[in-house]
Amino acid sequence: MLDINGIQRMLPHRYPFLLVDRIIELEPGQRAVGLKNVTINEPFFQGHYPQNPIMPGVLMVEAMAQVGGIALHGALEQGEGKLPLFAGIDGVRFRRVVRPGDQLRIEVDVLKARRGSGKVHGRVLVEDEVAVEGELLFFFARPEE
Question: Which whole-number Å values give the CA distances from 50 to 43, 90, 99, in the listed order?
Fold first, then answer.
């Protein structure tokens, strides 16, 4: 398990773009499961949509990517000290609206990790119902690149 401090040691993201509150399962290079508590205080709800607040789908995909970065952390010897950067999205489907008060369970399984790149399958669930799922591609870069 990782609390917010452990997550911040592994990811460069910070408020308001850190979209993972806790990691509840972690098998480095294999799998990670994270939680995100969605509150009305999220800055994106000011404009998406004030009268009918809905979490943007792209931010759910970003949350999957952040958990994917944690799952891939340490999976590649050449990836140590490098940032996992988003390289592509395949087959993402949105299946459920997410609103304030929902808790996201973000499950990511590593499909492959080699030669400075990785591929994961992720899904976001709310109360055991899939909200979004798909495959995400990463490459590893030095922070200054």
Answer: 11, 30, 12
> Number of folded domains in the chain?
1
Helices (H), 1-145: 4-10, 57-72
User: Quick check: 120 and 46 in contact, CB under 8 A?
Assistant: no
Q: Would you say 38 and 102 are in contact if contact means Cβ atoms under 8 Å apart?
A: yes
Give me the CATH number covering residue 104.
3.10.129.10
Is pLDDT at 65 greater than 80 in this prediction? yes
Cis amide bond preceding 143, omega within 30: no
Q: Name the pTM for this structure.
A: 0.94
Residue 144 CA to residue 9 CA, distance in Å, equals: 17
Residue of 13, 48, 73, 121 marked catalytic: 48
What does the pLDDT read at residue 76? 60
Rounded distance, CA 53 to CA 28, Å? 35
Domain residues for 21?
A: 4-141
Assess whether 13 carries a catalytic annotation: no
